[in-house]
Write a structure and sequence with these properties.
By secondary structure, the chain is mostly beta strands. The chain is 10% helix and 31% strand. Strand 1 and strand 2 form a beta hairpin.
């Protein structure tokens, strides 16, 4: 299936979860500093393993970086 991640099309196996997507992209799930939305709905970190992606879903991944 195809999903769009931060504006780029990506192929995943059918039924892939948000947690699997982040692993494929080598994005560590940190307690702070990461926000993920699927079809403009922010998904809590506790739901990443339950959130199954579907064909055409739009995923936005934001790493929050602090600085001084």
């Amino acid at each position: 299936m195809k999903v769009v991640v931060n504006g780029e099309e990506l192929k995943l196996q059918e039924g892939a979860t948000l947690e699997q997507l982040l692993k494929i992209m080598n994005i560590p799930v940190k307690p702070l500093g990461l926000a993920v939305a699927v079809n403009e709905e922010v998904i809590p970190k506790s739901k990443y393993s339950e959130c199954k992606l579907k064909e055409g879903d739009k995923v936005e991944i934001v790493n929050i970086v602090g600085g001084g």
